[in-house]
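Friendly challenge for the regulars: who can give me the structure tokens for this chain first? No prize, just bragging rights.
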Amino acid sequence: MPDLVPARMVNEFEYCPRLFYLEWVQSRFEDNPYTVEGRYVHRNVDAGGGRIDDPDEDSPVRKAKSVTISSEDLGIIAKADIIEGKGNKVTPVEVKRGRPPKHGPAWSPELVQICAIGLILQDNGYDCSEGQIFFAEPRERVKVPFDEKLVRQTLNVLRDLKEVAGSPDPPPPLVDSPKCPRCSLVGICLPDETNLLADRSDVPPRRLTPRDSAARPLYVTEQGTRIGVRKGRVTVSQQKEVLQEVRLIDVSQVSIYGNVQISSQAMRAMFDQQVPVCWFSYGGWFQGIAHGLPSKHVDLRRRQVAIAAQAGLPIAQKMIEGKIRNSRTLLRRNSRSEVKPILEQLKATADQTAEVDTVESLLGVEGVAARLYFSQFSAMLKDDTLGIFDFQGRNRRPPRDPINCLLSYGYSLLTKDLTAVALAVGFDPYLGVFHKPRFGRPALALDLAEEFRPLIADSVVINVINNGEIQENGFIVRAQGVALTQQGRRSFIAAYERRLDQEVTHPVYGYKITYRRVLEVQARMLGAYLLGEIPEYVPFMTR
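First reply, four minutes later:
Bragging rights claimed.
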């Protein structure tokens, strides 16, 4: 544990010990409107200025901004927003967004933070008996005397904070707390979902996960184009002609197909905004991904390595059970002929997943279920679409018919998105529990994709065929392989993105959420299981 704790973390701990642990110990952070507003109201004090002298001077300070001070005895370091002086007395001033509460001068986390700064000043020999908090909304200051009660509370918080920071596990989430909706890390913490699965609460979870970002993936399929960035906008150009231009803040991913160049300036901008860049072959094979610095959540990757090596079977069983049951649901809902015997067999194989004792046996059960499911895949297609879409079973590398071409392409897109999600959560996407970590495959992304293959990829394939969005002219035959044309690829990508934006009622938590957000929630709940916060991984299974 570091010798000095930032005073800002004292504020976070008083607000919520789990927030402190996630943000400081695990170095996980997300912005929300409140944090962005907070940075804005701090813009003037963050510029710095003024000077502070030794405490034995007659007038050690008049006014200084953004001053770093510390105390080794207390174990605290702080960047005080403002320090003002009058004679020998100094007064720290903290700038806060919003307004003061009606019941007192400030909220408890703000009081212990300003008191911690005052204690640092006292320990450095300055005469400091009170602080002030400036609230930006009403533009008023409130005085905070450093009385015995507040000092004792602050020292107790420091003691408890250090004890929690030294623990290998984060504190449990707050239960049904009104603090959670305002927390910037609520989408990482998932308090209500975690408490429900850990049997700490029987209250239905609130939908606290942030709304989907307005940013969307940028797909560049035109060969010979170049991706650059200029004045906060991403440009796609060909021979100096701009083909497309979007704001950088509206881009969540960049997917590059075939011979497309991207400038180093654009790559730095993507890394700065945490936008992953994905490369595909011209035919659509997912080949690689680039992102900024890896997640600092080392504990998660340590647990991932241990589980993958020793105890990955229970997770794999749940994932494959979810895949089989979701395949059965898709077939039951969309079949245009009698498939009841196949549905019963799929149900039996789903039940068998809980009985296997090795990953190899589970692979056999999954293979049986896949053969049953794909034997009836054509039953979900309109009769008038058959012909080029006649489906005789799964094949790949290369796909030898249009349906297998679409399935492979859909699975590639899904794997790409789950690789990006795994990296964002803090996983190593190449270390899985069911798929073997070899041949350069993102094994964990493939694991997470299992339960979503029927719900997202297969569903998109059925819809683009039945709706006529992709027809015979959307494919090109090369030797024994079938590939999408450029227009066919664009049509499929559009349908795939629509599917991710579709809302669904979560079968476990009960609130509505998009498939795009479901991918992240499932990855985070897998992380919660690996960290021992919930007793088992629960797959996403539609009813």
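The radius of gyration is 28 Å. Residues 402-425 form the longest helix (24 residues). Your move, everyone else.
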